[in-house]
Amino acid sequence: MTTTTVTANGLKKTIQSLRIPPVYFFMLAIFVLGVILDQIFARGQMLTPSILVNIIIRSVALGIVAIGQTVVMIGASIDLSVAYTISLTAVLSSFLMQGDPARVPMTVALVFLIGAVVGLVNGLIITKLKVNPFIATLGTGLVIKGALNATFSNFAGEVPASFQTLGYGTIGPVPISVIILVGVAVAGWFILSRTKFGAHLYGVGGNQEVARLSGLRTDRVIIVAHIICSLTAVLTGLFVVSRLRSGAPWIGPDGVYDLESIAATVVGGTALSGGRGGVAGTIAGVLIFGVLDTIFNQLGMDTFLKSVLRGAVIILAVASYTIRSKREAA
Fold first, then answer.
1. What is the DSSP letter of 159?
2. pLDDT tens per residue, range 58-70
């Protein structure tokens, strides 16, 4: 065995011991390719601090809700109501605050309470009425959409200037929004990997019937997972309205937060069938979307072509992850 082979094997074992999700190498490859294309066809600004920070900031909204989506998908469920929960949060926040800082605490508490109720309703419909999660959460989302459209036709009210610190403020050189995303990611990681609920969630997602026969309260686990997901959607809504200063019924659906949170989670390695995945991979999936958007903007690509290429990247990432998983299982 040559020295080069020994070194390569040693490097491979070191990387495996670090347990870095494979999607991070995919993300790195996309970023390097983007830098090269930017140097050749654009202004070569991909490596400037402003662009790098912008990639992270533009990933905050999707990142927060994708972490919640990760939780429900590990439990073999899904939540298509998150986009409308984001809209509901944004509209109610600006409408209730009316630019008055004194109304902020009450409004924030109220929208989180409403978000918890939305998650509870989703969980109960899925577990007690035995409705498929896709249909149940889609139905809940459409109910929220109908209520919003019947009540609000445009932007309503505004949040106070002080509340915009959430979206634009910094602590030293670090944006507050990035700190929040990191905090949510750490909380998600801790819940999934260091609590009984996390262990039970993986068990329910892996095989719900076996988990039930083992004595786990599977219904409760799924309900709590949906409440967590809805609360992350509320936090995303608060972040979005802090940047826009006012909320409108179409903010969530226009951001495609439902489908993109699912896509980012799947790209990050979380199985649609449940029982496998984690927050670390999801964050990489979200950053891939952020990097792709930045590359496309730098290159001045057509909007429709952006969608085509993003779809192709999603398929390629998931396919490569699936092939790798089969090889490891073999």
1. -
2. 999 999 999 999 9
